[in-house]
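Subject: mismatched residue count in predicted assembly?

I count 1016 residues in my input, but I want to confirm that the predicted structure covers every chain. Input:
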Amino acid sequence: MRKNQLNKSKIYTKDKEMAKELTSRSENYSQWYLDLVLKADLAENSAVRGCMVIKPYGYAIWEKMQAQLDKMFKDTGHVNAYFPLFIPKSFFSREAAHVEGFAKECAVVTHYRLKNDPDGKGVVIDPDARLEEELVIRPTSETIIWNTYRNWIQSHRDLPLLINQWANVVRWEMRTRLFLRTAEFLWQEGHTAHSTREEAIEETVKIINLYAEFAEKWMAMPVVKGVKSENERFAGAVDTYTIEALMQDGKALQSGTSHFLGQNFAKAFDVLFTNKEGVQEYVWATSWGVSTRLMGALIMAHSDDNGLVLPPKLAPIQVVIVPIYKKMEELAAISAKVDEIIPKLKARGITVKYDDNDNRKPGWKFAEYELKGVPVRLAMGPRDLANGTVEVARRDTLEKQNLPVENIDEYVEILLGEIQENIFRKALSFRDENIRKADTWEEFKQLINEKGGFVSAHWDGSAETEQRIKEETKATIRCIPLDGEEEAGQCIFSGNPSSRRVLFAVAY
Amino acid sequence: MRKNQLNKSKIYTKDKEMAKELTSRSENYSQWYLDLVLKADLAENSAVRGCMVIKPYGYAIWEKMQAQLDKMFKDTGHVNAYFPLFIPKSFFSREAAHVEGFAKECAVVTHYRLKNDPDGKGVVIDPDARLEEELVIRPTSETIIWNTYRNWIQSHRDLPLLINQWANVVRWEMRTRLFLRTAEFLWQEGHTAHSTREEAIEETVKIINLYAEFAEKWMAMPVVKGVKSENERFAGAVDTYTIEALMQDGKALQSGTSHFLGQNFAKAFDVLFTNKEGVQEYVWATSWGVSTRLMGALIMAHSDDNGLVLPPKLAPIQVVIVPIYKKMEELAAISAKVDEIIPKLKARGITVKYDDNDNRKPGWKFAEYELKGVPVRLAMGPRDLANGTVEVARRDTLEKQNLPVENIDEYVEILLGEIQENIFRKALSFRDENIRKADTWEEFKQLINEKGGFVSAHWDGSAETEQRIKEETKATIRCIPLDGEEEAGQCIFSGNPSSRRVLFAVAY
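Triage response: the counts match. Full output below for your records.
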């Protein structure tokens, strides 16, 4: 029936047995990441080059992220809408910087029909169904949205427009990596329109603060907030604000950006409004987004050689209960006790799974839920039943203790909060230990090459210097930190004067 | 600055003034629908042919639908995942019926790069970046998903797979209509895999029942559940179950379908599993979906010449409060009273908006919220304040009454439930009045042409007869109702014997 059926089946069995065998981080960090994404059932590559399948467990984490972000957007007055997947090719040419940045590596629709192959081999493009103007699959939606806003905005009373879209976008990346860089990815893109420059800048900053709050409070991932240098700015923006996180291998990961677009898109798409004085002005714009890339950040920020470590606030399963038994009567007695505990946990808003699958041994289950990053594991055997206890294991520290089963729900609720905080603290310490100052070019190169992490250094502000530093060290300016201080100094590369330090790093 | 600025601005003002002036249903039902979608700010056509922009108010209704459907899917054991937007062209050719139904009218990606036009006019396709195999934008995802399932399914222990996806899909429709038929639309598509035929059929039926419950309990829209005839079956299905609703113009609207796919896709994509007896078998499949088309159904099922009528369970704003005042002191006093009412309504889970915008007159606001279908309007003026009353208007019947402001929250909560039921009852009466039996061909033609609605008639079961009836009357078999009774009769068209009646209608 199936070709290579035996072989496949063998590989699969092997895979299952090896479920726990991740490459260690010290051995090969990239391979560890890939192993983890695949073995924890988060995502996999699809039959389409560069496009991933987000598997149910991975998608459940993304849904938790979406739900919280969506709530935060709505709490700050934003509404959702939906704009077309397709963008007429000519729209890109309207904003000069934007076309350079986005219109090149993209998926282009040229035809709208297939027909039976005259040679009888499947289907082929129908040459009669060529589009008059090619359509680009959106790599980002500024152009189609601002083309739409032209008809929505006439007066200052129509402003601000505070609109967000949850969507898929496509950028034809040549080298892809699950979650971190894929041809298609999921994201949200906010596109707001304002009557003044000040209000638009205020919105840009409000959103970068919102992203930072989400990263720190929900993902337990500390970030540096800052502004991008010109080289790293969004194509079409006046200023790009960013949150930058540090991964365990010392590389930085840009986790969210918020752009002040000035009047660039309003000018490109002819979007004017009548202000309170009755004068016509171009509208001011922002755009901002986070994507499924955050999944990659979440995985790399906290996980270890045993598997995922998930912050409880984003864990699809917060508590797993595993029965330890030999005889079926023992399982029945344990299950009866578990049936008392589960409603109490649920009443506290805790997501709990009872794994009484008889096909798997407890050891297999322990390893499996460690791999999946379930924050708390409760194990209960006949002795626990007799003693009125339960074994509580926390994923972040791998510590175990035996505790009275009475009030275990209250204990677990507090423990989940502690785990959330502990994961953040650990990542924060790591991040803070890995921000180092460099005052000379030699020192800079040594830090970047040997230590990694963020290097705080003076830079002369020129794009050329930045480019040269990148060529020699692969490090880029991640941001000019918002909380940085004025400090007179000399550019580590050119020796030219500088008024503040910026953060460099090798980045994902 | 902007060309035609004056003209546009004039049109816009005119539009605003005319906000209430919908074409009446009796005058031109299609135009009424289009007017309503545009003027209630639900959606509009975009710059891309056949693609719509779903505006924030329309999207808010869709989000409410999504949230409830998603909950119902999860409550029945389904999980969400995400599969690629692109499908390799060759995948379509694997399932013979499927390729005929879907691979033809679709958007085809042929290139992955644009470059600067050598003539300096914008960007053009880079001929060097032609894809080896063209990619089709998914019109539905059976092929890419079953290609993926091949690697996920080995044993009966891997089954069932109960997976849903929320996604955008593209079908290159030649004649489009906002929400009802658009080139790109949003939907959910469930794709499940089972170890037995019986279990797959059970899933198919479970989902059509779920869709019917959603339509009736949430959309307040009665539906007929049934099975499709061969002509109307999903391309690649063994059986298609459907829910069919009746619109106010007497046309039917297919509102959701659930397909039993047999082993067709498992065979096409070589998906086998080892059953409990250790024997390899092909996997059994279902797929099912509802789309933004439901928005069109919701609008057409209930709305009237004043605008939208929304069932409270799906209304983004359930209650609007409008102050009636001349002096600002009056507004202040009313606002103080409203500030007491709002928290009480919110505590009951009611979504409420207080519109104290001073730029608009109460009459304008009344018309606006009627247009937007807000189920309950509370109006309060100085006399109400003095009397301790409030005017309560319900959108469905347009009835008004003055009630004590005390306990108004409790009253409104009950009223919202009543409105939900009343809208359903009204649609149900209309639907039931518009199911008519025909026993002769003349009677059939007369009913379809003069009355519309569903016509219940005997049919000989042949695709040819169905096709002939369609050619002569435009009516199609909407379904063979699940609750239909066995009844010997003769086909209205051919006179051949028939064992049960089927429902015909002209459909959207």
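Residues 312-419 of chain B form a domain with the Rossmann fold fold (CATH 3.40.50.800). Marking this ticket as 'not a bug'.
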